[in-house]
Design goal:
The chain is α/β, with parallel strands linked by helices. The chain contains 6 helices and 14 strands. It has helices at residues 42-55, 75-79, 94-99, 101-110, 149-154, 196-203, and strands at 3-5, 12-17, 26-31, 59-62, 87-90, 113-115, 119-125, 128-135, 162-166, 182-185, 209-213, 216-220, 231-233, 239-244. A 6-stranded mixed beta sheet has the order 2-14-3-4-5-6. Strands 7-8-9-10-12-11 form a 6-stranded mixed beta sheet, with no helix packed on it. Strands 1-13 form a two-stranded antiparallel ribbon.
């Protein structure tokens, strides 16, 4: 069905990616653009978490815009992520900055989801070593938050498989010669409503799905939630289940 309204399903989408020099069989659930408001049913989020646990991913990664309301107004919804069994990380999106990134960080951290803004973590997953990097949203400066992208990319270990979590797909242009095998982004909603999506494409060259930028594979997630009206047309919601082989 082309027309979607509200949170009436859990749209898991399986994607297989083949990356050179990257460990195989890594499974990631990417959640993007939830835009949570008090109207988002807590039971729906709890069911989503339960189904993610059944998938048994190695990582759960949130690529920004978790909020569409002040964090304290949706605390119960955010606390549903406490039940995630896999290691979980997030980066802030532009809406998170508007609605309160600091309070979001407090609740998410208490719920076991770590903030990755402008940070690198080294992971050992089933004996495979890799690095996970995150960029805070490019509008962070509006809240006096500095993101030193040159320093971040210069700190990456060139021999380690690398995943970058960045809300806005355009940030792929900042990677330069650094090793980033995979970037996971959202932000665009796949345009959300056709034909408005045609205008979004003009501003967002990386719009929806899989792209290749130099040596980096980029996946742009359509997201789960809504901005503005609670309708999608020809831009389906998704919870991405990414398998790297």
């Amino acid at each position: 069905m082309s027309l979607e309204k509200g949170w009436n399903n859990l749209p898991f989408k399986n994607i297989t990616l083949t990356l050179d020099d990257f460990p195989s069989s890594l499974k990631i659930v990417q959640l993007s653009d939830l835009h949570i408001t008090p109207k988002v049913n807590l039971h729906h989020l709890e069911e989503m978490v339960e189904q993610i646990n059944q998938i048994n991913p190695d990582l759960v990664l949130f690529s920004g815009d978790i909020l569409q309301s002040a964090a304290h107004k949706v605390q119960k919804q955010l606390e549903s992520f406490r039940s995630l069994r896999a290691k979980s990380y997030y980066v802030t999106g532009n809406h998170d900055i508007v609605y309160g990134a600091k309070n979001l960080q407090i609740i998410m951290q208490e719920s076991g989801v770590e903030l990755l803004d402008n940070t690198i973590v080294h992971l050992d997953i089933q004996g495979v070593k890799l690095q996970l990097a995150g960029l805070g949203d490019r509008y962070s400066f509006m809240r006096g938050i500095n993101r030193d992208t040159k320093k971040l990319f210069a700190s990456l270990h060139p021999e380690l498989p690398t995943i970058l979590l960045a809300h806005q797909p355009k940030d792929v242009s900042l990677i330069g010669e650094s090793r980033v095998d995979l970037q996971l982004s959202g932000h665009t909603h796949g345009g959300q409503i056709y034909p408005f999506s045609l205008l979004v494409k003009l501003a967002q060259p990386y719009f929806s799905g899989v792209y290749k930028h130099n040596k980096t594979t980029l996946y742009v997630n359509n997201g789960i939630g809504y901005w503005g009206v609670q309708i999608r047309y020809k831009a389906p919601r998704e919870i991405a289940v990414l398998t790297i082989n």
